[in-house]
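ARCHIVE CARD
CATEGORY: sequence design from structure
SOURCE FIELD: tokenized fold
FIELD CONTENT:
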């Protein structure tokens, strides 16, 4: 059986995340404790009790999702001998994938994404950036709309290519608003403004990337056990140098999740297992390729279901 592992990104966080695994598996509880020690505050308490508005902050949501994903993956690994042929994540999830590929120690990854979240939060003044999900338009048409809606320092760009007919745009408030209106005129099925603290995966994040590069250089990356599929170009990588380049570019480039899944399928993946919170990626993957199987590990029931499904 050829299996690939995937890890979700920001937006999946919810109060109570990790609770089932923490209560039932010491390995999950220990993973959250490791994160608490790395950060110097109780991420565990924030995940389990909230408040929601604190957990939603970029620099809290990112380490929280990473920790929940690693906890689920570690518990699964302790119960199964199945190993993936490749791993990938959606935005922040690429860091969880790096931990799963043994390319970055968990404690270092937690600290790195905490600082990543801070830099992303500070890159553009509050209220000046925006993101919206556009349903029902193709990439080329929406890219042309973004170009038309951009004017000087007001820019809007493709940010997340999630699945056919679902693309997120990102940029300044004014340009995103203009592009949203144009998209509706071009018969977009829906345009949904996203609740985010900045224009992620757009060129407005370049200042954050410049500051982040020094942290990437200091992080103790190592050669991976399995390929990680890069968000920026859907190419597999396994070396520290490639990881640093991919993660720097990822901050201001589109997340090419559709291409990531195609790459994994081309590598032979027939079953995708999503680790962490929710099942957003599983839903996207089924829209990208209806012939693959999706499973998930979020809590004790889904862990047992996935372990059972993988033995059939």
């Amino acid at each position: 059986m050829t299996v690939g592992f995937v890890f979700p990104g920001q937006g999946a966080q919810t109060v109570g995340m990790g609770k089932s695994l923490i209560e039932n598996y010491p390995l999950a509880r220990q993973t959250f404790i490791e994160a608490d020690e790395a950060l110097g505050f109780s991420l565990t308490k924030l995940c389990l009790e909230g408040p929601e508005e604190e957990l939603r902050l970029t620099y809290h949501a990112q380490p929280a999702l990473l920790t929940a994903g690693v906890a689920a993956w570690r518990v699964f690994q302790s119960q199964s001998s199945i190993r993936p042929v490749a791993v990938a994540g959606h935005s922040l999830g690429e860091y969880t994938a790096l931990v799963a590929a043994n390319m970055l120690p968990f404690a270092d990854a937690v600290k790195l994404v905490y600082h990543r979240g801070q830099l992303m939060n500070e890159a553009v003044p509050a209220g000046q950036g925006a993101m919206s999900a556009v349903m029902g338009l193709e990439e080329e048409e929406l890219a042309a709309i973004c170009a038309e809606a951009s004017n000087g320092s007001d820019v809007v760009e493709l940010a997340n290519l999630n699945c056919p007919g679902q693309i997120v745009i990102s940029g300044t408030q004014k340009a995103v608003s203009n592009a949203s209106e144009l998209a509706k005129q071009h018969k977009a099925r829906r345009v949904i403004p996203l609740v985010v603290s900045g224009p992620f995966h757009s060129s407005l994040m370049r200042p954050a990337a410049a500051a982040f590069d020094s942290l990437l250089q200091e992080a103790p990356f190592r050669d991976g056990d399995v390929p990680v599929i890069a968000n920026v170009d859907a190419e597999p990588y396994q070396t520290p140098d490639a990881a640093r380049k991919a993660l720097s570019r990822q901050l201001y480039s589109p997340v090419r999740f559709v291409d990531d899944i195609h790459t994994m399928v081309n590598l032979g993946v027939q079953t995708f297992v999503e680790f962490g919170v929710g099942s957003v990626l599983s839903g996207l993957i089924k829209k990208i390729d209806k012939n693959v199987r999706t499973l998930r590990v979020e809590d004790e029931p889904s862990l047992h279901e996935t372990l059972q499904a993988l033995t059939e």
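CARD ANNOTATION: The chain has two domains: 3-123+204-311, 129-196. The chain has a mean pLDDT of 97.
SHELF: design records, drawer C
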